[in-house]
Amino acid sequence: MATIYHNLSEYDPNSVPDASQMRFGIVVSEWNSTITNSLLKGAVTTLKKQGAKDENILIKTVPGSFELTFGAAQMIKSGKVDAVIALGCVIKGDTPHFDYVCAGVTQGITLLNATTNTPVIYGLITTNNMQQAEDRSGGKLGNKGDECAIAAIKMINFSCK
Are 66 and 101 in contact (CB under 8 A)? Predict the structure, then answer.
């Protein structure tokens, strides 16, 4: 669903499992840090609202969004997390760099989801301008970090049994 039709921070807390025994990794890009720090704040706040403990939230930074896949893979290999939330922001510029970074991160996170038993939540904001990024990181459209935290909790709880 398009963000314009849905506030990223709206969810029914009763539909979300208790997160008190869950372990979360959050890998966050340093690039566009005003946006990514807001995403991080949203994710951590929401995890805690759902019962996650400080000691069960591992946060690591990477230089840019392209490095999110590596960071997520390392968190999975550590065995210390039940899910990874990857947070980044890529704003379209005048060159095709935007397309390459977005495609690479998307493919990398998809590969991790297909080849590991640890869910990786896609929290990469891809926008045309800074205002759109601000709107999705705590602005008028909510915070993608909130949405990613809820997705991580639900995916840890996911079972096909």
Answer: yes
Nearest-5° Cα angle at 21, 47 to 82:
75
Q: pTM, whole model, 2 decimals?
A: 0.92
End-to-end Cα separation, the chain, in angstroms: 28
Tell me the CA distances in angstroms from 80 to 46, 84, 89, 99, 143, one per residue in order.
Answer: 20, 10, 25, 32, 26
**Cα(94)–Cα(83) distance, rounded to whole angstroms?**
35
Q: What is the pLDDT of residues 34-86, one digit of tens each?
A: 999 999 999 999 999 999 999 999 999 999 999 999 999 999 999 999 999 99
The type of residue at 21 is Q
Any residues with CB less than 8 A from the CB of 76 and at least 6 apart, and which? 25, 84, 112, 116, 118, 120
| Lookup result for tokens 């005003």 | 34
What is the set of active-site residues?
A: 97
CB atoms within 10 A of CB 49: 14
